[in-house]
């Protein structure tokens, strides 16, 4: 391909970190759409104006989701990105690929698209950037033959994702990868056929360290935790302290609820179990001495999202503890109740957390059949007046 000068984009290659510009240039050397992408992007930097039109959802046979339509607003100037649709390919749980499979996907995308990848998008998918409408179906057919399915896009359940969990992490409280596989198979229709007010994301982190960032990036976050007391190896604690570990400043003072205490006389670390919120800090600081408990399950959070209609929201507790064991019937039933209520009452492009904020937590809990719990309090009450229904209060005769 003819090399076009891109002085503004070249500046983005001068830092210490790898640059997406470098990768586009590599693709542009053999792909016309990547070359026009580079030229259009340079023009956007020159004129301080974006040149993409959102094309809504374009699809393949039987699928309403999984392909994001995108068109250039300057097709005469950049004809090879006149259409630049994006495939969202459902990634394997925990992002485990074989080199052979990645080579197969790369070969398919070199044949039908721009050759540009994004591993991975914020939803989790393997993102294939840039193809034409006529190449959508043959590309999808080739991906299916290779063993891959499309993820979610549009107003659907988005591709479910998780951390590596028990595959590599000793702190895992639940089998995050099995959960994602089971839910992905169960919710195929919701993933591929958009039918809701807006997107709905489920992410799973196997422990409270939340390596999948589920609490901030998903409408329903599953965070692995334990219900009993964390386990302590007092000999290992003493060994760390005798070795110079500053247990007071690095652990005791950092406990958010002051649940830990160092008994210097007995040379023991003590915990007030009811005050522990399972934040993982002490375990992260002393992994040899402190371990997760044995009664394991998950906490469910509701309402996390990035800003669109309203500002960014962090998920708040919906279910303090649930046993996440196959076939996850209790969890699936709750998801169905949540999405049914949201589908009935949500406005266009209104996320479920925004709907709860608009209609009130009490209405939501009543609809999904959950009892109010102290852990569900998202923020302290700002209204000093308390109202209740007459049937909720006993007789005062």
From TrEMBL:
PROSITE patterns: ZINC_FINGER_C2H2_1 (PS00028). GO terms for cellular component: sulfite reductase complex (NADPH). PANTHER family: ANAEROBIC SULFITE REDUCTASE SUBUNIT C, SULFITE REDUCTASE [NADPH] SUBUNIT BETA-RELATED. It comes from Lucifera butyrica. It comes from the Bacteria. Keywords: 4Fe-4S, Iron, Iron-sulfur, Metal-binding. This is Zinc finger c2h2. The keyword Metal-binding applies. GO terms for biological process: sulfate assimilation. InterPro entries: DsrA (IPR011806), NiRdtase/SiRdtase_haem-b_fer (IPR005117), Nit/Sulf_reduc_fer-like_dom_sf (IPR036136), NO2/SO3_Rdtase_4Fe4S_dom (IPR006067), NO2/SO3_Rdtase_4Fe4S_prot (IPR045169), NO2/SO3_Rdtase_4Fe4S_sf (IPR045854), Znf_C2H2_type (IPR013087).
């Amino acid at each position: 391909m003819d090399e076009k000068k891109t002085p503004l984009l070249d500046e983005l290659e001068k830092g210490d970190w790898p640059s997406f510009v470098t990768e586009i240039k590599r693709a542009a050397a053999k792909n016309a759409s990547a070359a026009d992408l580079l030229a259009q992007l340079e023009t956007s930097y020159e004129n301080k104006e974006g040149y993409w039109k959102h094309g809504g959802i374009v699809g393949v046979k039987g699928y309403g989701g999984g392909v994001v339509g995108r068109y250039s607003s300057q097709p005469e100037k950049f004809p090879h990105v006149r259409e630049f649709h994006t495939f969202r390919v459902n990634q394997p749980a925990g992002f485990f690929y074989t080199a052979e499979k990645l080579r197969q996907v790369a070969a398919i995308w070199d044949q039908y698209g721009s050759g540009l990848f994004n591993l991975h998008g914020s939803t989790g998918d393997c993102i294939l950037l840039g193809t034409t409408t006529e190449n959508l179906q043959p590309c999808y057919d080739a991906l299916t033959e290779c063993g891959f399915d499309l993820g979610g896009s549009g107003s659907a359940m988005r591709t479910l994702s998780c951390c590596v969990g028990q595959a590599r992490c000793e702190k895992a409280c639940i089998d995050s990868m099995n959960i994602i596989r089971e839910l992905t198979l169960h919710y195929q229709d919701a993933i591929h056929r958009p039918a809701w007010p807006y997107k709905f994301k489920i992410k799973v982190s196997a422990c409270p360290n939340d390596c999948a960032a589920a609490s901030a990036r998903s409408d329903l976050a599953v965070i692995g935790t334990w219900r009993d007391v964390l386990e302590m190896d007092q000999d290992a604690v003493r060994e760390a302290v005798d070795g110079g570990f500053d247990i007071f400043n690095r652990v005791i003072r950092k406990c958010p609820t002051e649940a830990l205490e160092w008994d210097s006389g007995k040379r023991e670390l003590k915990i007030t179990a009811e005050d522990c919120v399972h934040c993982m800090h002490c375990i992260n600081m002393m992994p040899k001495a402190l371990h997760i408990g044995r009664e394991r399950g998950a906490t469910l959070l509701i309402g996390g999202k990035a800003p669109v209609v309203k500002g960014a929201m962090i998920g708040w507790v919906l279910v303090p503890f649930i046993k996440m064991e196959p076939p996850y019937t209790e969890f699936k039933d709750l998801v169905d109740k949540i999405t049914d209520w949201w589908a009935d009452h949500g406005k266009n492009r209104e996320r479920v957390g925004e709907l709860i904020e608009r209609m009130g937590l009490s209405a939501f809990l009543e609809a999904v059949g959950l009892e109010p719990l102290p852990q569900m309090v998202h923020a302290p009450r700002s209204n000093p007046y308390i109202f209740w229904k007459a049937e909720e209060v006993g007789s005062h005769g």
